[in-house]
Amino acid sequence: MARRAPVPRSPIVPGNTADRTGTAGILRRMYAMVNARWTMMAAEVLSIFAKIPVYQLNDLRDPAVRYGLTPEQLAGIAEELGETVQRWIAGGRSTDYALWWEPYQQEAAQLGTAQSVTNLTRLSTVYAAARSLEQIVYSEPYINRIKQAKVRGYEHWTGLAAEQRTKLATVIGQAVADGTNPVVARKAIVEALGVSKGRAMLYAQSDITNTLREARWAESDAAEEELGIRTAMLWTSALIPTTRAWHASRNGKTYSTTEVRAFYAQGGNRYNCRCGQTECLLDDEGKPILTKKLQSSMANEKAAWQSRHGKG
């Protein structure tokens, strides 16, 4: 009796619709680092501001105060602020803490690669016989991707530090010039720090998830280019309240890596996105090999999200 050909397997799809990339653990630790750094930075910045002499005017009709600073002293304050901001946003307490975000990026890249290796090994015996995680992480393409991620991270964090330095210098300089009550001035300083902290959280989330996704796209490309394994990327939307409708609409659909890269290059699609993409095999006609059960499950996920949040 002839043996039946094995039934192709569907890809491994992340079951947690709130964490399709599997980066929640990395992000929790990175968010904690951002919180700690901004807390210490705020304490130092407020301490610097508190050193400025303040003189209360004896005029009940005028609630303004006078700060005892010469222009030269104000310039010194600005320099001290700049050093503080640079140290906490884009550096560290010492050279051992410099480029503090890089280990998180490296972990995301390796996690994404491991996810791809596990998935493609399950889907293809050809892939399983030819590639391993250890082989990939020591390869030149992988090392180059890590370098690119580092450059992107460096641009984000040093850019944010420059913006924060300028903003704080402006807030404090304006307070001194206007004679703003110190209590009001401190509130403005804290608000400025809060805005930059929000930006930092956005950069952390976007850099980590994008680094992981890029690792998966690259491994899908490598499987096709080096081994002739025809693949596509199955979109797994993060079905949470803040997900954009045009991101959620992609759940269960397949795209080429070129199409996925083009999507994330548009507008702000790469920011605040928690969607993932999973490699799937293509048949001889170029159609994705997915079980009806998986297709139905992903369609139901999307329909439930649309119904729950009133988004089409």
Write the layout of secondary structure elements.
Elements: H1 24-50, E1 54-56, E2 65-67, H2 71-89, H3 102-123, H4 125-130, H5 133-137, H6 140-178, H7 182-227, E3 231-236, H8 245-248, E4 254-255, H9 257-265, E5 276-281, H10 292-309
Antiparallel strand pairs: 1-2, 3-4, 3-5
Helix pairs in contact: 1-2, 1-7, 2-6, 3-6, 3-7, 6-7
Radius of gyration (Å): 26 Å
Overall pLDDT confidence: 91
Helix and strand sequence? HEEHHHHHHEHEHEH
First-last Cα distance: 51 Å
Main sheet properties: 3 strands, antiparallel
Proportion of strand residues: 5-15%
The order of strands across the largest sheet is: 4-3-5
Number of strands: 5
* Structural shape: elongated
Return the structural class.
Answer: mainly alpha
Provide a descriptive summary of the structure in words.
The structure is a single chain. The protein is mainly alpha-helical. It contains ten helices and five strands. A three-stranded antiparallel beta sheet has the order 4-3-5. A two-stranded antiparallel sheet has the order 1-2. Helix 3 runs antiparallel to helix 6.
